[in-house]
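agent> fetching stored inputs for the magnesium ion docking request
agent> found them:
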Amino acid sequence: MIRLTNVHKWFKDLHVLNGVNLNVHQGEVVVVCGPSGSGKSTLIRTINQLETISEGEIWVDGKNVTDPKTDLNALRAEVGFVFQHFNLYPHLSVLDNITLSPIRVKKMDKAAAEQRAVELLDRVGLAHKKDAFPAQLSGGQQQRVAIARGLAMQPKVMLFDEPTSALDPEMIGEVLQVMRDLAKSGMTMMCVTHEMGFAREVADYVVFVDHGQIVEQAKPEEFFSNPQHERAKQFLRQLR
Ligand code: ADP
Ligand code: MG
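agent> prediction call returned; pasting tokens
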């Protein structure tokens, strides 16, 4: 479903991704972790082309997304992205946040889009908030709306960049629960997160990034109990 081949990225003379190779199969959940500044966000953002790459190839569902001819709107409909800071449209209601892209990009009928939005809100436990505005919601609620918004496009892949790290501790669980349910529903997911309980429970494998390279890739039980790379050992010690 996702294939990265020898991906390099430079920001001017900063070599941020240094030869990344990765395969994610349909239905797999991959957790990406690593030190701050190691290139995790850049890596995940290249997959729906929020960042371009300097070298290499990225394929999603059989399409070369790094081909300049790729339709980015179509790509982003297939690849949902959930940001650390939610990025909801502040001037739109919860319902309108969710229906905007299905109506504009997918040309969905308004009534059908709204019906689907309410179903998705129900799935994330927020049907009663459909007429609220983002500022009237807690961080955890806003992030659950952001996930529903991503799902409204019926994506084949969902990408998450530290979805719980801007949340107060008591709200982390409700967002992780939505992500867990999504993983169990069979969604292909790539999640940058340091929530190791989540990784242990739902990840098919963990990818550890350091200095723009994947230096370790292992099943969670192996990664947590017996990390191989010195930098990964140090990283896990700091988390505890
Ligand atoms: P992480 O998500 O692992 O913390 P990032 O992918 O955000 O790491 O950043 C990797 C490196 O690239 C850092 O040194 C960061 O400062 C740099 N970087 C990220 N975005 C940009 C940008 N738009 N322009 C220049 N440098 C950037
Ligand atoms: Mg980051």
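agent> quick read of the result: The CA atoms of residues 222 and 237 lie 15 Å apart.
agent> awaiting further instructions
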